[in-house]
């Protein structure tokens, strides 16, 4: 509104100045035409005593070199000159505005009849037009602009209210959203303007936040459940040892308590690893030979199930050596847990990707469970039977590390047993392509 007033005031002032300039210029032009006619008559000696003149240029005088009026129109004085200004010989034409005369303010054109020193001067002019002498023009423009200002103000107010109404609705809805209820969404205004884009972005952010909070709550619930079970077992074993000292072997009770403590320690360590992967700053990448890393990580494994590594050549990748070694160890441990006689680890470069495959000859994983095994604390029945002390976090940590390195970790089809495939971008390859259509998983 204020900008509209300033704009219209500027336009009005400019318009008034232009009108005044045009009026004054036209007046001087009319005066010059009439003064030029009577200047020629002076030089010809044909000027009557009473000069005939018509409005608007009705003030005409001929004044001699002594300042006496020799000829005048009826509207002009026959005694007092219209002006004391006399044009010099080298500038015969002059525009003059005189105030204080009997006619008030007048606009004159003074023309020296000849360049000679004693030449008479012809004055032709008119009373200053009211448009120049009064504020009528300004008042008229202001009166004319008032409805425009009102219309602009009403339009601006209406449009601003219509524009801000969705913002108020969005603000009110955002105020209703709390940490306990993130299911609400802000309404999307019609159209494709910036406010609609803002509302859409807010809804997308709320959806991501809701998903993150649900995952956090589920994680907290699963963690508390997984920690409660060994703690309850530990408490029961210790209470039994105290309640029945004659029936319970103290050494066996201590060994059981230590085993439960080891499982608690493993769960807590894995939980801390997950939290660090999510919250810590990225580790500066280094060049890692995935083939050599797989050989080193599996060579240290002592287990009844042998591990064969097939890595005919170096496959360099960029990342954290410690974290990638953790992935290889987790996959090999998981494969040894389910294998019947052998685990095979393959490392190769395929289409610009570094591909690490860990296969076992066990019972395999059902297609319906191939994504579920990467969820936190998920342990299939076979895993619980083969390794009761497991935490159910190894595969979840492995996928977090793979994603943090810009790669993927999936369970894919295999003729026998389970087949885990880690794909990372190879430093010696071209940009990675998606997995083949026959691959299973997300």
UniProtKB/TrEMBL annotation:
It comes from Sphaerisporangium siamense. CDD domains: HAMP, HATPase, HisKA. GO terms for cellular component: plasma membrane. PROSITE patterns: HAMP, HIS_KIN. It catalyses: ATP + protein L-histidine = ADP + protein N-phospho-L-histidine. It holds the Pfam family HisKA. It is found in: Cell membrane. This is histidine kinase. Its main location: membrane. Keywords: Kinase, Membrane, Phosphoprotein, Signal, Transferase, Transmembrane, Transmembrane helix, Two-component regulatory system. The lineage of its organism: Bacteria, Bacillati, Actinomycetota, Actinomycetes, Streptosporangiales. It comes from the Bacteria. One of its GO terms (molecular function) is phosphorelay sensor kinase activity. Residues 1-16 form the signal peptide. Residues 222-428 form the Histidine kinase domain. Its EC number is 2.7.13.3. InterPro entries: HAMP_dom (IPR003660), HATPase_C_sf (IPR036890), HATPase_dom (IPR003594), His_kinase_dom (IPR005467), HisK_dim/P_dom (IPR003661), HisK_dim/P_sf (IPR036097), Sig_transdc_His_kin-like_C (IPR004358), TCS_sensor_his_kinase (IPR050428). Residues 161-214 form the HAMP domain.
